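<context>
A single protein, sequence plus fold
<sample>
Here is the protein in question:
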Amino acid sequence: MNRNWLLVLLAGFLEIFWVAGLNYSTALWQWILTIVAIGISFTFVILATRELPIGTVYAVFAGIGTAGTVIVEILFFGEPFSALKILLIGTLLTGVISLKLLSDDQEKKSEVIKEAT
């Protein structure tokens, strides 16, 4: 995994926290942490899109955030468990992973073309 995909992964992970912060923050310090997490998360996405396809980055970022938020809601905030939710998260993650793999293949092809010229 290269540096840019690591940024996307970290941005998606931070998204889980700031989305929960938007819903559950009550104290000023919690709101400040939420705002900082939003800023860092989007900064990471912006940096990653300098080298990676924007559509793929956004899909991976949103997929990580969506799946992670649903899982965190179930595990920590009492959201009812549903087998259908887990199935849909699995479907979402399959699509996100497939997009990333497709992007990696396209990057390799671009590198081969650059080396050949």
